Amino acid sequence: MEITLNIKLNPFSNKEGPESSKIRFGAIKNYSEVSKFFQTLPKSSEDRYVAEIFEIKNTEKSSWLLDLDSYGSVRIQCSHFDEI
Predict the structure, then answer these.
(1) Residue 45 — very low, low, confident or very high, per pLDDT cuts 50/70/90?
(2) Where do the domains of the chain lie?
(3) Neighbours of 4 (CB within 10 A)
């Protein structure tokens, strides 16, 4: 199972870069836990959730912490993490 985040980047912090970026978490081992976390977020449309990302941090091998402003965080245990 995988999740792709389409991230709108802050133009003040990213003046020279693109307006958005996509990152993919692939082969998620704890998909059920991650899916339940995303279901608590506000939806903009079917299967699209909206929240401000505070931090994405690699905490250990194959483990990422996704911390969202006002919604808490979830640890994503995955074999693949890449920008697409």
Answers:
(1) confident
(2) 3-83
(3) 11
